[in-house]
Amino acid sequence: MSILSAIPFTAVRLTDRFWAPKQRVNRERAIPANEEQCRKTGRIEAFKLQWKPGQPNQPHIFWDSDVAKWIEAASYSLHTHPDPALAARLETVIADIAASQQPDGYLNSHFTVVRPQERWKHFPDHELYCMGHMIEAGVAHHAATGSRSLLDVCIRLADCIDRDFGPKPGQRRGYCGHEEVELALVRLGRATGEQRYLDLARFMVDQRGAKPHYFDSLKPEEERGKEDYSYSQAHLPVRQQDRVVGHAVRAMYLYCAMTDVADERRDRGLERALGKLWDHTTGSLMYVTGGIGSSRHNEGFTFDRDLPNETAYCETCASVGLILWARRMHLRTGEAHYLDVLERSLYNAMLAGISLDGRKFFYENPLASLGGHHRQDWFGCSCCPPNISRLLASLGGYVASTGKGLLSLDLYAAGSFTAAVDGHEVGVAVTTDYPWDGRIALTLSPATPQIFRLRLRIPAWCVSWSVHVAGKVVKAKLVDGFAEIARTWSTGDRVELVLAMPAERIHADPRVRHDAGRVAIQRGPLLYCLEGCDNGADLDAVVLPDSARIAIKAQPRLLGSVITLHARGHREQPFAGGLYRTAAPAAKTVPLTFVPYYAWDNRKAGAMAVWVRCAR
After folding, report:
1. Could you give the residue numbers annotated as active site?
2. What is the pTM of this model?
3. Domains of the chain, with CATH numbers?
4. In terms of CB atoms within 10 Å, which of 32, 91, 154, 227 comes out highest?
């Protein structure tokens, strides 16, 4: 079992100048934009089941999931910011979804009207994946609104899946090629108390990669045994997997499900596999931004340390998946290094996926651009926009966690929350300007004086820190990456954590050939980049000397109020004629301006680079 429990997002109110405005933009712009596009493209209309063969705009295999994630995001938003009009629109859509459900509980618009004769015959497809997202939406909608309108639909859907899949005679021993339904079944099982949903999730996790391969049984005899199924992480039984392969989003969702199942059953085999998979992901396959999945070819992984910048795929959904997995791993173990990865991906790879105005989105998140990569309103495969929205809307649930005699501060943002520590209520008010400043102040308000351990995460990027209680420096013990203070806490007790936050150069392992001779710039949890609109075109000609001092400047009117970094560098000058010479190119001293990576492509179109050439 997990040693920690997350404080629910419903108990958290963010008031900072970083995340709170982004949640407001998500609520006022992104979630409505997602709804608008789901209506405009026919995704919502598809649940009316009126499409006929030969008609245009055929419902696609993944459409249901886009609507489901919008419902989930909207539901979270309704809890924190009631909106009767949005609530009414949700119920209308849910009524159409309920009406589209088949008598046996089956629910999928594509396979109901486009390929009804092929139900349960395309497991490498998105059939169960869509159902998983719908189940997650049903659980979220009920938790946020109290309405059972979608939850009851999803219970009937889960019952349908449970009847058709499993180890009993006549049941299918299959699972979806695109993982998602497994973690959704765990979520439904925990919400309803129904053990059979948890058992079904474990069955699907256990069956993945088992021989003879179930996907082969769906193929003609002559086509069997010719595919290794690594694209869907089904090449080996999950307990034998120690290297991350295939499609990045599928992998992250599988590892989330494996973590959930390991947590429910205390499965040591799964725990060992998860440890190896985590180490491989973060030690060999992760970009400095926290993005994962380097290749467009398979929307996923290639080989160790293959991390090209300009062609980096880094699907936004993969970053969301990594964040979901990291949170689970932290709650299971209490170790802060999982949160370091979560924070890196959250502030950089994931956050870059949405424009500052909340209306445009990245599907891919490269670390370099010649100026042709831009966010879009929507995509034919538009999994990323609503995935960002559901994460931002529920972000409060990542702030803190509790355990036996323990309160843990996991991410830093100004606001307040209430936590139950050993059954006793503790109010916490947080004041900070993180991530722009490393000072975090907490005021505790336990219902009665209470003894517990307070843990404050010390990020891996921080090399110098101090803790103050009632204005006095205390020697806090470092435990699992947290500064821990154990004492009797009373109302009004004030704790201050000070994290040194200089701008620093980051170097890549020399085996990452794409970053050889280059540095990235980081300050706190934020990665920075050069943009052409500040530094001119051809950013590969720019060199940052190791001796150059990096200055910090507050920019309250730039990119929604950011801190920019500045240095003196060199720009190598192009040859007057010809491509090659024996003499090195001349260099001109130039000022360099770095902006947070998440905020790039929000001004003029132009080049961008995270990794900059350096000179010793």
Report:
1. 299, 383
2. 0.98
3. 41-223 (no CATH), 228-397 (1.50.10.20), 401-499 (2.60.40.1180), 504-615 (no CATH)
4. 154
